[in-house]
Design a protein that fits this description.
By secondary structure, this protein is of the alpha/beta class. The protein has 11 helices and 10 strands. The protein has an 8-stranded parallel β-sheet with strand order 1-10-9-8-7-4-3-2. Strands 5-6 form a two-stranded antiparallel ribbon.
């Protein structure tokens, strides 16, 4: 199978695709070497690693150069977090996806939250973006997994009493427009997860964290994809900060005794 075919096949409700989101070539290689069946990027992780804040502030040339490096160093499929597509109109989203395809990605997240407006994009406008992207992929003869994301739960948008219903409404509309996956970050309650997963026909993706059920339970709830977003990048950054605080504060090196990779192991990741 092609990498795209493999990526599509990994989305299963009985055995979710588990993604430890990468932020550079190094982290992507580590996650692949530890059993990652695919690599997904973290928009925040990549942007921060490149010296930018999250929220479509990153330089696109640098973003896609980073994506190319990740694709070059791993053998598994790579999906890119393209935020809201770096262009609210359909044409802008299409151009961004084209660049991701050119960089070697076989899939992408496309969210309905406009960071500049601080609000969600209207349902029909996002559906039009999805239709335009899928039409362009078809015209190019490229199989590309478009994971449509709604951020109602993540940003607590709208009435709490109807937020799950509105999330389902959006995800159903996005799947009907051609999205291959449905993503609702911000939901961690098991009953809500199960309800959303049952309501959408496409593979359902959750953003996991400390409050989330374990992967085995998410599989039972009908989840087909589990991702970690910027958690791995922030864990790594936390370890670096702890090392700096010890070194600059006490002048000791206790951090060096923490579990780590040897120089040989680290270097071997790229000796292919």
């Amino acid at each position: 199978m092609s990498l795209a075919d493999t990526f599509f096949s990994l989305h299963r409700r009985d055995r979710p695709l588990v993604l430890c989101n990468a932020w550079d070539a190094y982290s992507a290689c580590v996650f692949e070497s530890e059993g990652g069946e695919a690599i997904a990027t973290s928009s925040a992780g990549v942007a921060n690693a490149l010296g930018y804040g999250d929220g479509e502030d990153v330089d696109l040339g640098e973003l896609f150069a980073s994506l190319r490096r990740i694709v070059r160093v791993v053998r598994v499929p790579v999906s890119a977090d393209l935020e809201a597509g770096f262009g609210i109109d359909a044409e802008g989203a299409v151009r961004t996806v084209e660049r991701a395809i050119d960089a070697g990605a076989v899939g992408a997240n496309l969210e309905d939250y406009d960071p500049r407006a601080g609000d969600t994009i209207p349902i029909e406008a996002h559906c039009e973006r999805i239709r335009a992207v899928k039409a362009r992929c078809a015209a190019l003869g490229v199989r590309f997994f478009l994971n449509a994301r709604t951020d109602l739960m993540l940003h607590d948008i709208g009435d709490e009493a109807t937020r799950v219903d509105c999330t389902i409404e959006r995800l159903r509309a996005y799947v009907a427009a051609g999205a291959d996956g449905a993503f609702a970050p911000g939901v961690s309650d098991a009953a809500e997860i199960e309800r959303i997963a049952a309501a959408v026909s496409a593979p359902f993706n959750v953003l996991a964290g400390p409050a989330s059920p374990p992967v085995a339970e998410l599989a039972r709830l009908g989840v087909a994809r589990v991702s970690l977003g910027s958690w791995p990048a922030r864990v790594a950054l936390g370890a670096a900060r702890a090392a700096a605080r010890e070194l600059f504060g006490r002048g000791t090196y206790g951090f060096a005794s923490a579990p780590t990779m040897t120089y040989a192991e680290s270097n071997a990741l790229f000796a292919r």
